[in-house]
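Repro:
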Amino acid sequence: MWLMLQRLDAFFFEQDAPIAKALRPGLSQVDLDAAEAEVGFPFPQEVRDWYAWHNGVDEDVPGMIRLPNLMLLSSGREALKNRQWF
């Protein structure tokens, strides 16, 4: 999965997509461990990989468009908050 995410990053930059500048840095393994402890269960490896890749997007970057209900690119914190809400 990690190779696919790196290829996706490269594609965003090659296309000069606004999201390329908006992607936040990924979470550290320590941050992911703390989030698991907070919710009380281990995350699937795919979830850990996703949030280690990028922790959501910065919506204040020029050219970024927020799509309604797009949780795919939410931060780890936003995803946990949405999980509680639902």
